Each structure stands twice: as structure tokens, then as C-alpha cells.
Amino acid sequence: MPTALLLRGPRALDFESFEHPPLGPEEVRIRTLYSGVSAGTELSQYRGTSPFMAKRWDEASRLFRAADAPSWDTPVRTLGYEEAGEIVEVGSEVADLRPGRRVYGTWGHRTHHVAVREAVRLLPEGADPRIGIFSHIGAVALNGVHDAEIRIGDVVVVFGLGVPGQIVAQAARASGAQVIAVDPVASRREIALRLGAAEALDPAAGSVAEIVKEKTGGRGADVAIEVSGVPAALAEAIRAVAYSARVVALGFFQGEARGLHLGEEFHHNRVQLVCSQISGVAPGASYRWSKPRLWQTAVRLQHEGVLDLLPLVTEEVPFRQARALFERLDRGDPDTLQTVLTFGEE
To answer: CA-CA-CA-CA torsion for 229, 109, 171, 261, nearest 10 degrees?
Structure first.
């Protein structure tokens, strides 16, 4: 029986069975192979801290408004946005796809999914299907690098070396930057160095901003990208950049961002603070870039070896053990990066 993961309430996961719907003529049925778990967006849903679970997002005015019914009421059936699978059946009018082709996309933590032909995104022939789970989070990271407007030779400081921060560090280096990676967790700094960062700093060992200023002859970084969603990291990113340089806020901040002293370096150094978020692409590139192109590029760059993301997978867990996995992620383990639900022959 096809099965999906759902959230009945904060920290209350359950499994829900559903029927195999009959295929339309232009549809395909996909069996899930792997589904990546997001330690940011998904945990905010799991914990009930996402603003969408407390307020209603008004699309017309683009405001969060107080409301009796939030945008995401329970039960939540939208957990999961990093999937890879295999086509097992095609509709009568689908002539260019066959069972056995590997695909990637966003359809949630579920054993099966039905998609219309035009929405199917194929993995390269012979590729490890797990590269598909990085299509969305890879797009988030690439979008942040585009928003940073990196120039070859720039010094770029990346704050936060979780999964998106690791991808940002690799993509910034591939864009021609010298990357200084920052994270309090030693294992994350080691991975960043192994995957191409020039240096990795522990923020607990001293002021990152002062170290960066010293390394750049007093100038400061050309760009800082904050990917942790921690206000103290954003404050230090602002301090670390050069006069009139750019700070990209890519992390998903929860609640108030206390500790930002905007009358200090931000004000006196005319720092540009830019938000990067995957609901839109970098405005200057919007005539050429789109979310689908970002997804496709994140997969292609892995297949070509420009990005090496499979080393970020630290744990693979059977789908039926999803509840235990979320409980462990909620408690926190700094050595955990990308966790993946596996589906076998379910």
C-alpha cells in the first residue's frame, strides 16, 4: 500500500496510506528511492516554529497576517522536498519515457508519486540517483551565490557549514572566489576544507571579523554569505566585510534576530544587506534564470563533478524509521549533515 509521512501536530509524525490513483494519459507513476530530510525548513515545520504555522501568508500583499487559521494547518502533508525516484508506469500518451528511468523532484516523503509528463525531470543516465535529492537545496545555495554577485578573485566568507553552507562554499569557490568557511563544529570545518575551502575558522576561537580584516590587509571580505540563520553569525558577517561590500542573508531566521547593532559597522561602512530566498531568483538575472534552471543546474554540476555533494550525506535511514530520525534531528547532533530516507522496494 502506498504510504506517506504526515505531521499531525508539533513533533507528532505518523504514516498515512493512500490508494494508487489510475494514471491519466499524460502521467507517470514514480516509485521513490531516496528522500532528503531538511534540517532547516522541515524541522521548523516539525517543531511548529515556521511562521506559516502561526500566521497566514497573504500572497497578494506579501504579508504575514494574524489569522484564526494559519497557512499550514495540521495535519501537514507537505513534509519533504528533496526526492529521487524511478518511473514504474507511464500513461497511454507518454511515448518518450519508459519504466526504469530515474527522476528527481519535489513530491514529499512518500513511497509513490504521480506526475504529469511535462513536470518530470530526468536524472542523467548512469548517475547516482542520490544526486537528485540535492536539486532543491542546491538551487537554494546557487541562488545565494548569484545574489552575492561574486567576482573572480573575491574573498568570500561563508558563515554556517550545514548542508546549504557547504554547497555555497563549493559554488563560491567554483565561481572563482577564495573561500573562508566559518562554523563552530570541527567536523563541518574539516569537510569544508576537504571539499575546497581555503581556510576554516572556529568562531569560538576569536573574532572572525578581526581575523578576516587581518588576512586581507585591513580591507575585509568582498562578500559574506550567512547560511546558519543565527543572528550572531549575521552580526559578525556584517563586521567582516569591506566598506560598501555585500552580505547575503541566506539562513532561515526563526523569530527575532537579536544582537544586530545596526548603528555600528552596518551603518558606518555602508554595508549592503541582501536577502536570498528561493521564492525568487536574483533580480538582475531573472530574464535568464528561473527556479527550474537552478534545479537542473544543481544536478548537472554534480554530474559534471563541479559540485561534490554526496560526501555531505552522513546517514541513510529506512522510511519506516522516519519518526526516530526526526526525534534525533530535533535533539541536535552537530556532526549530522544530510540525512536521507531510503525506500528500497516499498
So the answer is: -10
At position 305, the amino acid (one-letter code) is G
Rounded distance between C-alpha atoms, residue 322 and residue 276, angstroms: 30
Pairing of strands 178-182, 199-201: parallel
Q: Are 128 and 107 in contact (CB under 8 A)?
A: no
* Contact between residue 170 and residue 310 where contact means Cβ atoms under 8 Å apart: no
Alpha helices (runs of H) in the chain, residue ranges in sequence order? 41-47, 135-148, 163-174, 186-194, 208-215, 231-240, 265-268, 291-303, 322-331
| Packing angle, helices 208-215 and 231-240, rounded to 10 | 20
All three cell numbers of 215: 588576512
The CA–CA distances, whole Å, from 245 to 229, 272, 285 equal 20, 6, 20
Measuring CA to CA, how many Å separate 52 from each of 5, 57, 79? 19, 7, 13
**pTM for the whole thing?**
0.94
Return d(Cα 107, Cα 58) in angstroms, integer.
Answer: 24
- Report the candidate in 174, 151, 163 with the shortest Cα–Cα distance to residue 227: 163
Give per-10-residue mean pLDDT for the chain (346 aa): 93 94 95 95 90 90 90 88 96 94 97 95 96 97 97 98 97 98 97 97 96 97 96 97 98 88 95 94 92 97 98 96 95 93 81
Query: Count of alpha carbons within 13 Å of 265, Cβ hemisphere only?
Result: 22
Cα separation, 251 vs 344, whole angstroms: 33
- In whole angstroms, give the CA distance from residue 301 to residue 152: 18
DSSP state of 21: P
The string over 257-277, giving b where at least 16 C-beta atoms fall within 10 Å of a residue's C-beta and e elsewhere, is eeeeeeeebbeebebebbebe
Best CA proximity match to 338, nearest among 103, 131, 47: 131
- Minimal CA–CA distance to 131: which of 316, 291, 301, 318? 301
